[in-house]
Write a structure and sequence with these properties.
heterodimer; A: 108 residues; alpha+beta; hypothetical protein PF0899 fold; three-stranded antiparallel β-sheet; 33% strand; elongated; B: alpha/beta; 35% helix; 21% strand
């Protein structure tokens, strides 16, 4: 994962004609169970000798949000309980909380 | 300067998984990604499945393990196409490992391909390998609270096999609680109780397999 983040960031910076990456902003859904300290540590290792070396990896943990297919209510899923608080529906789509995405980078 | 990216971290893996899926579809393979803790009974389930499917659907197996070819040795006596993948220290299979195994298995002779993932309830759930369905085993000796502790895998799985139910009376495992916990995480999950020792539930499990094959290809078997 850390290597993928470095690869994606370096490719984006190269495409944007940047020569050094300062910060990488990653959206990490709550359900992915990312441990920030561990991923940041691995990112540091994987970015050595690349233009992302020394960049700050910022992990934004996004909460688990469900959407009821019956009444279209959006609600935070707490305690992993997939029940609509409005209509008690059980047919729930996850609209946020499973993503793992490089949102943007800051480079110079 | 700020550069927008919006690229999935696992995009490279998902692209390879989609490629694998195309290969499987072309060969008319129903593909299952089988996940569980170490020791839940993945290989034993495959032994029972090989016996139960004889003369019906042709089974093929890609078995992932950190070390050893013991799983392959156990499965070889059923005369099936089996490929053993040693992942080294990796705790899960990814799409690229499966892609590299494909030249070593005759997919044209397989109806149902089971990819036996590395025993682990966390990482395997993250990586698509090109499967139609993720399925998992939870054995009664592991505890009924596991769905709450490892939600992603239970959320991603279409089918949960509760194994070793012949041992229920020797454990404090709550079968009802385990199912309620799994359905709390994933209301749509199908659940079958099995024992690979007594054979209970194995017919129901193979009927599930046949049903999936029928749904995907519109036929019971190409044989």
């Amino acid at each position: 994962m850390a290597r993928s983040i470095v690869d994606i960031a370096v490719a984006a910076a190269t495409k944007g004609n940047a020569s050094r990456i300062v910060r990488v902003n990653v959206l990490a859904g709550q359900l992915r169970g990312i441990i920030p300290a561990q991923l940041i540590f691995c990112f540091g290792l994987m970015s050595e000798n690349t233009i992302a070396s020394g960049a700050h990896l910022n992990l934004e943990i996004t909460p688990l949000i469900g959407r009821c297919r019956k009444c279209e209510e959006d609600f935070p899923v707490e305690d992993y309980s997939y029940f609509c608080p409005r209509c008690q529906g059980q047919d729930i789509d996850i609209v946020s909380g499973t993503e793992l995405r490089v949102r943007d980078i800051e480079a110079e | 300067m700020k550069i927008n990216v919006m690229t999935d971290v696992l995009e490279a893996n998902d692209r390879i998984a989609a490629g694998n899926r195309e290969v499987f579809d072309r060969h008319k393979n129903l593909v299952l990604n089988l996940m569980s803790s170490p020791g839940a009974g993945k290989t034993t389930l495959l032994e029972r499945t090989a016996e139960a499917l004889q003369g019906k659907l042709r089974l093929g197996i890609i078995a992932g393990d950190i070390e050893t070819t013991r799983d392959k040795e156990r499965l070889d006596k059923y005369d099936l196409p089996v490929v053993q993948l040693n992942t080294g220290s990796a705790c899960h299979l990814d799409a690229n490992m499966i892609s590299s195994a494909l030249p070593h298995i005759d997919l044209a002779s397989v109806d149902v391909l089971v990819i036996e993932n590395v025993g682990n309830l966390v990482c395997p759930a993250e990586f698509k390998v090109g499967e139609d369905f993720k399925i998992m085993i939870l054995s009664v000796t592991e505890g009924d609270e596991k769905p709450l502790k490892y939600p992603l895998m239970f959320r991603e799985s279409s089918l949960l096999l509760v194994n070793k139910i012949d041992l229920l009376k020797y454990t404090n495992f709550g079968l009802k609680e385990a199912k309620a916990n799994a359905r709390k995480i994933n209301p749509g999950i199908e659940i079958i109780d099995i024992s690979c020792i007594t054979g209970e539930g194995i017919a129901e499990w193979t009927a599930w397999l046949s049903g999936c094959y029928q749904k995907k290809f519109g036929t019971n078997s190409r044989a």
